[in-house]
Write a structure and sequence with these properties.
This protein has three helices and eight strands, in the order βαβββββααββ. It is α+β, with helices and mostly antiparallel strands.
Length: 148
């Protein structure tokens, strides 16, 4: 699952003390496979499953982790997500960033030269062992209106 953020939009919103409003309301992609927990039971370790995960941009690896290293179990995440609301069949809940973080965090720690912002044409690939690779090409959005 990739929960895309528009950091350029978010940066503008933060200047207006709005918080990340439309900057987080961009897109979510899932796939290429959905499985049930019993299909991964042989990989269970601690709170999750010992499955290697990588994130890359244009075939350059940005992040590597194991799903087993998540801090909260999926049960705990679901319990928290359902506080004050109802979680229903068909709802999709992600675990949050795994591994070394998102491009924002990576560029702040290691520099924008090593982890540049995404540009139109870039290919982002998320791979989870046994589940496959989710590949998306970044496309340019509509121009932003000037703020008043």
């Amino acid at each position: 699952m990739n929960d895309w953020s528009a950091r350029d939009v978010q940066r503008r919103e933060m200047k207006l003390s709005m918080g990340p409003v439309k900057g987080k309301d961009v897109a979510t992609t899932i796939g290429p496979a959905l499985v049930t927990p019993d299909e991964l039971e042989d990989t269970r370790r601690n709170r999750s499953y010992d499955l290697a995960m990588t994130a890359s941009v244009n075939d350059v690896e940005y992040s590597r982790a194991s799903l087993a290293d998540v801090f909260w179990s999926f049960g705990e995440m679901l319990a928290y997500a359902s506080r004050g609301t109802r979680v229903e069949t068909g709802d999709v809940i992600g675990s949050g960033t795994c591994g070394t973080g998102c491009i924002l965090e990576l560029s702040l720690v290691h520099g924008i030269d090593q982890y540049p912002w995404l540009q139109p044409g870039d290919i982002v690939a998320l791979n989870v062992e046994r589940l496959g690779t989710l590949r998306n090409r970044v496309v340019a959005g509509a121009p932003l209106r000037p703020l008043r």
